[in-house]
Fold this sequence. Notes:
It is built from six helices and 13 strands.
Amino acid sequence: DKHLMGMPVFRAFPLLLLESYMKKIFVRLSILLVLLVVSAASCSTYKKINYIQDAQLDTALTMIANQGILIQPMDMISIVVSSRDPELARIYNLPVVTYQAGSESSVSNFNQRLIGYSVDNDGNIQFPELGTIHVAGLNRWQLAELIREKLSSLVKDAVVTVQFMNFKISVTGEVTSPGVFDISGDKITIFEAISLARNLTIYGRRDGVYVIREQNGSRTIYQVDLRTVDMFNSPAYYLQQNDVVYVEPNKVRAGQSTINENNLKSVSLWVSIGSFLSTLATLFISLFAGRGSAN
């Protein structure tokens, strides 16, 4: 060291020991800072990424009852009436259409599909022999029971089956595979919808999941926090037809347009602290050496 040149050995040796000691302290402080940063990042990552963090294992949770998918205007539903007398039930069923490559045809051995009932804007359908039936606001079991009762005097052993033909949901935002998904059956949860989209990305906010729902001519937006068990009591936990699930991006994704500005700020902060400590140690050693030279 230039500050130690020309100094007597008995004075220079303690300064060399001090300089070596200060360097060791600086290295240890740097390692400690790195460990603190990694530890803080790990805790923060856990809280931001994991689902249902407050769940108690082996504990039953009270959930809202699932009333099933409710029929809405513009829905398409299939209604099939069965009986031990097929001829008696036939007049209450819509015809089956055969088709090939998406075009209708009268030729046999082609694919077949059942013609459905289109719910009008007033929530009604036109049913053979029974006329106008108001179906909006009913689930499929309620509608099946309603039609069975109306047919009870005409078909004594009628079995009525109702299915949705256009039950679909959309998942968009920070998910691996966004898209529109056709749903078989009449029950799907928000977790199942996210699974269809192959889970949230690492940039998706677990507390920023929104369900956009249109019912009765109005639009409602629900916010769902996937990190807490409270979501099981959300009206949006069970999805309805045509729901849109949107996953909000986190700050890292939002800052990627500026080359991960948030990450750069964090790194710059700790680099600045390290540089400050290094400068402080060098200055302290230089001052101490200068005093030694003056003596």
